[in-house]
Q: What sequence folds into this?
């Protein structure tokens, strides 16, 4: 006996089938050519960015409250430690003032041109977005705030990544831990340059080092400024030795706890600024 399928059930099944096919087509296009849908994706994030921010705000505050309550037991010991550290920092502060004065006098003597301090835009994280980039964040700041692709992004004590997409009100950050991330870095003191390569873990690796190089664990790593991608001297992290014997970086910033970032404005190329009385060719 032939079973008759009601028209509304047949329509529901057919609609689901076409929706699945359409989703697979969009997924394939996004995977093969991410830039093709970049405009639509950016407009979508601009549209829903404020909504995501409003929805996530109570969760961020709840998480901060839980962290605050869980740390009450250790506050007394931490307070004593901070008092001792504060005394040491007061001594260092006086030393730093003396060195700053000496440095300024030397700069005037040598007529050195110093880069101005970096300008930045502060922004809240509104989502941990999943797309072609495995490690990225969405921030509530876009071109209206001066945010543009390629700008460096810092949080807490160090670099977290760079802007890869910017809409009018939102932007996407590619984290330095993502496998697509490559950042020129420098190890001060030994003046060794390298490339910091993300690998989708919490500890990105250092590439293009000499085979027999010896680097002390804990050595500081900063951006080198090569290629004009980032300004020189942004703090990145400290050197650690991986289990396979290669060198890696422990970032200064605790990336999985970031909820606010500073987006650094691109600096001018000071090598192209003419001296007084001179003009560019």
A:
């Amino acid at each position: 006996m032939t079973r008759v399928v009601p028209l509304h059930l047949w329509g529901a099944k057919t609609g689901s089938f076409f929706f699945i096919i359409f989703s697979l087509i969009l997924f394939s296009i996004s995977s093969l050519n991410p830039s093709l849908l970049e405009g639509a994706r950016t407009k979508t994030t601009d549209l829903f960015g404020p909504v995501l921010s409003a929805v996530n705000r109570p969760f961020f505050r709840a998480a901060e409250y839980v962290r605050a309550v869980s740390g009450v037991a250790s506050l007394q010991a931490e307070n004593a430690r901070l008092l001792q550290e504060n005394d040491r920092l007061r001594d260092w502060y006086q030393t730093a003032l003396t060195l700053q004065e000496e440095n300024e006098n030397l700069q005037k003597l040598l007529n050195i041109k110093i880069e101005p301090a970096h300008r930045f835009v502060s922004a809240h994280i509104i989502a941990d977005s999943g797309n072609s980039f495995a490690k990225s964040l969405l921030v509530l700041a876009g071109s209206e705030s001066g945010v543009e692709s390629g700008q460096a992004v810092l949080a807490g004590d160090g670099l977290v990544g760079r802007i890869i997409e910017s809409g009018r009100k939102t932007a996407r950050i590619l984290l330095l831990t993502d496998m697509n991330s490559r950042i020129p870095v420098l190890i001060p003191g030994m003046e060794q340059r390298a490339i910091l390569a993300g690998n989708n873990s919490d500890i990105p690796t250092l590439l293009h080092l000499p085979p027999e190089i010896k680097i002390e664990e804990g050595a500081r790593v900063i951006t080198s400024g090569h290629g004009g991608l980032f300004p020189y001297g942004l703090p990145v992290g400290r050197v650690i030795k991986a289990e396979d014997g290669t060198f890696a970086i422990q970032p200064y910033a605790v990336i999985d706890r970031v909820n606010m970032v500073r987006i650094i404005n691109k600096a001018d190329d000071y090598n192209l600024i003419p001296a007084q009385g001179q003009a560019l060719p």
About this structure: Helices lie at 7-32, 38-70, 75-110.
